[in-house]
Design goal:
By secondary structure, the protein is α/β, with parallel strands linked by helices. The strands form 6 sheets. It has a 7-stranded mixed β-barrel, surrounded by 4 helices. A 6-stranded mixed sheet has the order 7-6-3-4-5-20, with helices on one face. A 5-stranded parallel sheet has the order 17-16-15-18-19, covered by helices on one side. The radius of gyration is 24 Å and the shape is globular.
Length: 643
């Protein structure tokens, strides 16, 4: 039997385990990336491990999240990352150089290589034929030190793309259709691979839009073949030497298959408050809007920006609409400025933002109260925009630009002639904002800068024989990392300060949670299906650890968050009988009986509800490595014990 693209890369990078779906495998990692919202913690963890130099082929630290500098905190974090990168052998992408995923796609992505990043949208580079995965910061730090990256071997999903997109339909509409078909939890434990004749009609930036937003499926990653289109993109970036062809075998087997006829695909929109709440634009067209935001790592390529500029040229943004545009990289912004497209955007009334994540993570441009915002971003979770009662709708750049002019959600297919944009034969390449590290000889002469807002990494304690605590919080299905540890301009500057962050933990769900958790000296959290979906941010585990949370009992977990809980020393326990969830309430006293022994050698454990005199069975089906980490009280303790 032949292999899929992902299976070929996994096989060539396999360090441990076998490729049986669900079993733990260890992978050699070629490249890593970090961004500043999660990167500070990742480099603090790297320092805590006592490592002197990264051992990957390439590691890059990007500054793209915390770029609003209202106080010293963000600037101090940037300086810490810069000095750490210089000393430890990491390239440093300076503020203003662009969004990590867009820049990495342009300048560093290599077909057939492995990449993990401390950001859930790292699969963007799957559009280049990389095995690119989001991971917790500690996993990235370990990989930078030459360590193995562990994941459950994923199942394989094939999405067959037929035909060609009609005018006004876009790559964003393809991934919205996949989300409609598979839902936000349909990709958990799977890699989504795109195939079929329709693939050849999509440029690398369009493919990257699809793999980027594949993160919203809960998928391990998404990937496209490396073909002639890939080669042409790399050639235009001056990197043709990095190209290698990569395709699945004709007799490769898949666990699931879907087929999408691109020629029939209409403009789509994801309604609040989930990316899979997808309908056709024409079904809700005419809705008055207040704001349009174009950009993010999903839709900020030169191709996207040029289409928007052509739509806006000679027109004016509707007076009731605020339009902001954030080009994804310095390269994109330079080329827009040089060819006149930037002037067309400005002339139409667009507000040009810096090349950074910005509004996507609630870093500025929050909508008005109860406002309606169209965004080309990847997530529309409630409150993520910075306005709790806003309605955020996810659309393509084409739909966004047309609607910005009309003042209402507009089906672009009814609007006029679609803009045609060709990929350039060559991109403007000037990597002057990517700083190279010191040589090993120079590094010893320089120190790392630590600002006063940077605090120590929390560490767990070794697992006890029995844990007797109360339930401090009960939540429902599809709880995201934004629920657990919100983003936004007020909170993100403190990502290197867990004690301060703890004030905001779960306040989206219950504003009294942090104080109650402290008063009760920690306890247990009860969750529903797909607990921890969304971002790779390990703060959603580190902050509950700081507050004394010992275990999360849920119906099921998102992959990255489960890994982060284990790395932090918090027990992720799944109900064997999901109906048990209904019998537990906040303040119930639960006892994890003989839990250390169960974690050490059993696939199940018993939970006794003292309050209601009930017993439940939960899964402790962990790998041997995970069992050792949990017994040690977290990965840092586990690593220290190995030395």
């Amino acid at each position: 039997m032949g292999l899929t693209i992902a299976q070929k890369i996994i096989k060539s990078h396999l360090v441990s385990g076998d490729m049986t779906p669900g079993s733990e495998i260890g992978l050699k990692i070629d490249q890593t990336l970090t961004q500043d919202a999660t990167g500070t913690m990742a480099y603090l963890q790297f320092e805590a491990m006592g490592l002197q130099r990264v051992k990957t082929e390439l590691s890059v630290a990007y500054i793209d999240h915390n770029t609003l500098q209202n106080g010293f905190e963000n600037a101090d974090d940037h300086r810490f990352i810069q000095t750490c990168a210089r000393k430890r052998g990491v390239r440093f992408s300076r503020p203003g150089n662009g969004i990590c995923h867009q820049v990495h796609l342009e300048r560093f992505s290599v077909p057939g290589k492995t990449l993990i990043g401390s950001d859930s949208h790292t699969p963007t580079c799957g559009g280049m034929g990389m095995l690119a995965m989001g991971a917790g910061g500690l996993d990235v730090a370990v990989a930078m030190g030459g360590g193995t990256y562990y994941i459950p071997m994923p199942k394989m999903v094939r999405v067959n793309l037929l035909g060609k997109l009609p005018a006004w339909s876009a790559a964003k509409d393809i991934i919205l259709e996949v989300l409609r078909l598979m839902t936000v939890k349909g990709g958990v434990g799977k890699i989504v691979e795109y195939a079929g004749e329709g693939v050849k009609t999509l440029s690398v930036p369009e493919r990257a839009t699809i793999t980027n937003m594949g993160a919203e499926l809960g998928a391990t990653t998404s990937i496209f073949p490396s073909d002639e289109v890939t080669r042409q993109f790399l050639k235009a970036q001056g990197r043709e030497k990095d190209w290698t062809p990569l395709a699945s075998d004709d007799d490769a087997a898949y666990d699931e298959e879907y087929t999408i006829d691109l020629s029939t695909l209409e403009p789509l929109v994801a309604q609040p408050h989930m990316p899979d709440n997808v309908v056709k634009v024409k079904e809700i067209a005419g809705m008055k809007i207040n704001q349009v935001c174009i950009g993010s790592c999903t839709n900020s390529s030169l191709l996207d920006m040029m289409k928007v500029a052509k739509i806006l040229k000679g027109r004016t943004v509707h007076p009731d609409v605020s339009l902001s545009i954030a080009p994804g990289s310095k390269q994109v912004l330079n080329m827009l400025a040089a060819n006149g497209a930037l002037a067309d955007m400005i002339d139409a009334g667009a507000r040009i933002l810096e090349s950074a994540c910005g509004p996507c993570i609630g870093m500025g441009q929050s909508p008005q109260s109860a406002g309606i915002s169209l965004r080309t971003f990847n997530r529309n979770f409630k409150g993520r925009s910075g306005t709790a009662d806003a309605g955020v709708y996810l659309v393509s750049p084409e739909t966004a630009a047309v609607s910005a002019i009309t003042g209402v959600l507009t089906n672009p297919a009814d609007w006029g002639e679609a803009p045609e944009v060709e990929m350039p034969d060559s991109f403007t390449v000037h990597d002057n904002m990517i700083e190279l590290p010191y040589s090993p000889e120079e590094a010893g002469e320089h120190d790392i800068y630590f600002g006063p807002n940077i605090k120590e990494v929390p560490k767990g304690s070794p697992l006890e024989e029995t844990i007797d605590k109360k339930v401090v919080l009960k939540v429902g299905d599809n709880i995201t990392t934004d629920h657990i540890m919100p983003a936004g301009a007020k909170i993100l500057p403190y990502r290197s300060n867990v004690p301060y962050l703890s004030k905001f933990c779960f306040t989206v769900c219950d504003e009294n949670f942090p104080e109650r958790c402290k008063e009760m000296q920690g306890g247990f959290i009860i969750g529903g299906v797909n607990y921890g979906q969304g971002s790779s941010r390990e703060h959603a585990a580190l902050v509950p650890l700081y507050l004394g949370v010992r275990a999360v009992l849920a119906k099921s977990f998102a992959r990255m968050h489960k890994a982060n809980l284990i790395n932090s020393g918090i027990l992720p326990l799944e109900f064997v009988n999901p109906d048990d969830y209904d019998t537990i309430d906040e303040q119930d006293e639960l006892v994890l009986e003989n839990i250390r022994e169960a974690v050490k050698s059993s696939d199940t454990a018993t939970v006794y509800n003292k309050t209601k005199d009930l017993r439940y069975t939960v899964s402790t089906d962990f790998s041997d490595r995970q069992r050792a980490i949990l017994q040690a009280g977290g990965c840092l303790n586990y690593i220290a014990a190995q030395e």
